Amino acid sequence: MAEITIAGINKSFGETRVLSGVDLAIRDGEFLTLVGPSGCGKSTLLRIIAGLEHQDRGSIAIDDRSVDEVAPKDRDLAMVFQSYALYPHLTVAGNMAVPLRMRRQSWLQRLPVLGALMPGAADIRQGIERDVLAAAQTLGIEQLLDRKPGQLSGGQRQRVALGRAMVRAPIGFLMDEPLSNLDTALRLRMRAELVELHRELGATFVYVTHDQAEAMTMSDRIAVMMDGEILQCASPDQIYHDPTDVRVATFIGAPTINLLPAEIDGDGDVRLFGVEAGMRTSLPRGQVSLGIRPEAITLSPVPTPLQGVLRHLENLGAEVFAKVEIRDLEERVTLRLDPKIARGISIGDPLALDFDDDAALLFDQSGKRVAVDSIDTSSEKRVMASV
Amino acid sequence: MAWLLMLPAITLMLLILILPVLIAAALSFSSYSLGSPNFEWVGTENYEKLFTRSTYNKMFTATFTYVLVVVPVSVALGLGAALLINSLRIGRDLYKTIYFLPVMAALLAMAIVWEFMLHPTIGVINATLESGCSSPFWYGFLTLSWLGVDPATTWYGQACQDHFPLWLGDKQYAIWTICFIGIWQAFGFNMVLYLAGLTAVPRELYQAAEMDGAGSAWERFRLVTWPMLGPTTVFVVTITCIRSFQVFDTIEAFYPQGGGPGKSAYVMMFAIYEKAIQQNLIGIGAAITVLFLLFVMLLTLAQRWLVERRVHYS
Fold first, then answer.
1. Counting beta carbons within 10 angstroms of the beta carbon of residue A250, is it exposed (0 to 12), middle (13 to 18) or buried (19 or more)?
2. What is the value of ipTM here, to two decimals?
């Protein structure tokens, strides 16, 4: 059982501010992912939770007990490192036994040869062997127990690192990009295995990654970090469909969300390329950006304000992404097409685009999300009969 | 074709390495001396002398004392210094330079300086030690009287009453003093090798050890540092062994005429030099050389075996 409460964490390395006022409440038994571009402070935050780094300000509590002055080994958390950090001189069994030996054996019993002769040593050793075997069986690596890490493949090392973490049944797991050293196929398989393992163990998982696909597929909740702050912490669905910040919207989702420059007129209507887009907001007159995901854009049979020329097609088999160059717009607009429709168009074709109002996201100039009311669901208004 | 390409290297190796060794091995079974027309095969007579005569007995004692003292102490000090320097935030380079200076200095020149310092009457070492006798604090401290020991029974108390050692001139102290200078000279080199080894230890391993429950610095050293330094240690021990077997400069500087008081510092290298060059007894000199080569070869083989079996983990 582990609820991890992070309150007002600040951390600087020299002059560089890495974390500024991070608050986060990680629920018991949750799979929470910290995701963000490299250098956003997510790994530092994880290491502060682990106790490997010390925060400048703020506090960490596990189950309402402040652990700020508690050594890493006494926080009852296990960590899986990106490099796996296996002890190269020990066998797989030896590696997995380390956390147990450090906890269950006295320093006398840990002595190389004499240790075995100490009273009670045999019982403890058997207990450790039993637990190591049990963990190895869970992960399907019992046939590797006698090997050294140097003789294992990347995926096997990954499992050993997991085994070493879970063998002592900690209350929480901290994972620092554990899959990033694996090849794509194995990474996909390990994703599913990790999620299953989480379900089986029921422990709290805090998972750090820069890969938004990993975050989306594995987590109960995602905390998107950028520039040392948590921008939003919510379920994958909410993060994707209901981002509170333009940076969250751009970071999550592949291909990236389309951001179109729009303006708000005196009535509060949103105008795209000077034409009312059928949305109303309470914001005063000014510039805003309209975020539309590629799947919310469709081809329109009639002319619309969004007109351009097809410049590129990306065929992924099940879907095709089209990049359309819009007049006066630097960024090309990406939309998702059904392969059947994509077959009918070719590079250089002029296209008119329409989008789903309900899926459009409005951001003010500082990048904060603004609520909109859809006032006219028909696209008639946008049809540029007059142009 | 391949043979042709290897030919220059093989020719050179044969000419300047293998051939001299073979000649030395052959000469060790003869009574040859340079310029003498007589050349006689004497069989294993030279080797028999090596293992029976007391001079050579002293040679082995001095050599092995030197190796067995200098190797462990300078390796341990080198490792200790490397760990301490590695844990520093500032001043690393300063300490590295200080400890490495003796390695860079010519040992022969340093030996002359040490000779002055160790001089029984005008040397700074005995002068310093003597000045402590008249200071109640230092006298009390060094004679361990604060532990309740009778000052007169301790080494320092005795020396204050009598006289301080002659160091290089005393049969009891000579080889240990030579060892001390050898350690002083060698450990800086070991320190540098260990520092290089330490940079190769991934930081994440220490953090993993900390998470796994290795709370104290000693536990992390046992779990991570020492095993990860295995290859370095094997190399450091081998190279220090070979260099210790080769000790010559200090002995030659201190005792140009014969290997110290009562031949107590008569090490192998000096014996080779004395027998083969000074006394022109090439045969016996060659026999010592062959033995010396044998030791070095055994060490190298042991290193190879260890490196391949034990300390390279992948």
1. middle
2. 0.82
